[in-house]
Amino acid sequence: MKPREFLAHSGRQFGTLVGLFVLCAVLWALTPHFLTVSNLLNVAQQTSINAVIAVGLTFVIISGGIDLSVGSLVAFSGVVTASLLQRAVPVPLALLAGLMTGLACGLVNGLLITFGRLPPFIATLGIMSVARGGSLLYTDGRPVSGFGEEFRWIATGEILRVPVPVVIMIVVYVIAHFVLRRTPFGRYLFAMGGNEEAALLSGVRVRLHKTLVYGVCGLLSALAAVMLTARLNSAQPIAGINYELDAIAATVIGGTSLLGGQGSVVGTLIGALIMGVLRNGLNLLGVSSFIQQVVIGAVIILAVLLDTAFKRPKR
Amino acid sequence: MKAIPSAPPQTPRAVLTLRGIRKAYPGVVALDGVDLELRAGEVHVLLGENGAGKSTLMKIISGAVARDAGEVLLDGAPVEIRGPRHAQALGLGIIYQEFNLIPHLTAGENIFLGREPRLFAGVIDQGALLRAAQKILDELGVAIDARSVVSRLSVAQQQMVEVAKALSLNARVLMMDEPTSALTEQEIRELFATIARLKARGVALVYISHRMEELFVIGDRVTVLRDGRHVGTRSIGETTMAELVRLMVGRDLKDQFPKQAAPVGDEALRVAGLRRNGVLHDINFTLRQGEVVGLAGLMGSGRTELARAVFGADPINGGRIFVGGRERQIGSPRAAIGLGLGFLTEDRKHQGLVLGLSVQENTCLPSVGAFSRFGVMQVEQESAATAARIAELRIKTPGPHQRVVTLSGGNQQKVVLGKWLTTEADVFIFDEPTRGIDVGAKVEIYQLINQLAARGAAILMISSELPEILGMSDRILVMHAGRIAGEFTAAEATQEKLLAAALGRAGLHAA
């Protein structure tokens, strides 16, 4: 690719990356504790759950949809996994069941949207409430706690001195980037989000791939649920509240258009890291959590404002 | 400046005068030194082929587009049209083919949208609004209740609401773009009566229509544009249909349509008794290899619906489709593509292309599956196919990764064609292949159609432009009200015969 084409394709991610570095530089200047290996690993670990959910949401948003149910699916998949673990189901089986729960719920979202012809906002809003209520019913409103070391390794373990959650995040992103750029499924997401009618008339099985993308999103929510449950050593039926908003924020900061048809998971990873770094840095600086919310909101708006300013047509 | 030959000595007052108007877009000069004079109380017909510059001229008058050069005089005084709202304030109104009405508001609310009469503190005076709107509608001589919701009105009534809205702005110039295209004959008569009333009030009307026969009923003067240039202004009484066509086309049809007949081979596509309830009735036709079959018909006659049904984009209620002599079930575009069909939709931007994606991504979209091994796309194959398409179709693009939204209409159309060359289609359905494409690129598209036919492809070419149908087809089908109403060989077909069939006034094989 020629340099100009590279910039046209990757200029947006480049801008976000510069933003991340500037943010890191400022925090480094303000607090010496920021730029230590242990703190950076800490940031990566704290970011991993939001980052994994945001991948699924990025896929959905590129395809021209939205998924509001991811936070509730984190709770639901989490309590299913946890309750199986408590009944002494082998860890791999419990994990599999948890992941399949998320996948199944996601596919229900997809079927409601494709065959039920519901707007994605409505379908996933409904499932968001159903899954939340389901989690509360299933656990009678109480957390499910206490698991073996084998399961907790998902949160506490290390591979080559890198925390397992960070490894999971990296693996998910590598696969997701490959899927988006090098598989027909990825290409179809862009085509459907950019122009659904043209995609259909080009022979894309729109309903199939749309249903699948919500399934993938549900599956990744369930993966996040497993990571969260292992970290807290507890599955809460009220876990994951507002996670959909964090994931949308990471996606949008990363340059994916809510209108669909364009975006990248690389951008989303940088977006998620910006949010993680911001939270971590503000904590280190002792800024109150109230002010943190204001700052994060401002960053989201700023990112999109810059985006719009650069994209505005010249004529 | 060009003289206006038909101007009588006692010229009525000119309301709006345009001189030497020029407008260029990247790669295309849309208007080049165009003059137009609009007089109070006249219907001034603007005539020209697609891409001749009519709509750009309208957009300049209505303030939607800024001119590059030339002057605009209102009542003889130079004026600068700064934008659509300013044009309205100057009394320059336009009614587009697609109306700008808010469907769930009432007629009255639409008429005064943004200019509602107020009581106090910004509260809308609904009573005054309705009375004023009703007065305008009544003066217009149309039976519309100002309280009726726009979405419940007929197309003709909605059009009248648009007219009323323009009049409420004291429009002195009113431009109408293809106002009769969606109206019934009765509604057209009513529209013409309204136009007569507007003339009597001294409004200058600009009338754009592709229905040549209407011009002689309603028009006073006619200005012909060709390739962005002013080629003549005539009084309707002093001109003929033949002269106007000659002015519009401006050259021998043979140059414009480089038709080359290819040897006709076996049956490629046959449709027997195809039916879609309420839309298509008992459609029968055959396409052979190497043959270009033109499909003519008025808007709404079912041409595009037929193409979509054959391509599996819309369900059918009966009939059989044979591809290469074998009966096939085509339940989806995917199935049609698998059988070697390619569909170039009339609306490139909304149906043909994913504008935000690149030339390469669009070119390969229907072939992505074929270009994959074990679920992984083979980038080298995609690049090779795209490079081949760019070369053979002479697509003007900075590179394969250029987003198609930045390409010109002609090049976009080539990318759409490239999609189907990449799937190695051998039956092509072109729906309005040259709509919105400038004249040079049109000839290139025609040459590509010739090349496809020479390779043995079968081509169904839908078009509203009769000269195009006559110039490019080996055989011509005409649709009327969801049926094939006539079939002609290229030799026997004339514009009059096609038009008669399209209007439902001819039997099958009328010759």
Topology:
The complex is a heterodimer of chains A (315) and B (511).
Chain A: H1 3-30, H2 37-62, H3 70-86, H4 91-114, H5 120-139, E1 144-145, H6 149-156, E2 158-159, E3 162-163, H7 164-182, H8 184-194, H9 196-201, H10 206-232, E4 234-235, H11 243-253, H12 265-284, H13 289-311
Antiparallel strand pairs in A: 1-4, 2-3
Chain B: E1 14-25, E2 28-39, E3 43-47, H1 54-61, E4 69-74, E5 77-78, H2 84-89, E6 92-95, H3 107-111, H4 126-140, H5 155-168, E7 173-177, H6 185-200, E8 204-208, H7 212-218, E9 221-226, E10 229-235, H8 241-249, H9 253-256, E11 267-276, E12 280-288, E13 292-297, H10 303-310, E14 318-323, E15 326-328, H11 333-338, E16 341-344, H12 348-352, H13 359-364, E17 372-373, E18 376-377, H14 379-392, H15 409-422, E19 427-431, H16 439-454, E20 458-462, H17 466-472, E21 475-480, E22 483-489, H18 495-502
Parallel strand pairs in B: 3-8, 3-9, 6-7, 7-8, 13-20, 13-21, 16-19, 19-20
Antiparallel strand pairs in B: 1-2, 1-4, 4-5, 9-10, 11-12, 11-14, 14-15, 17-18, 21-22
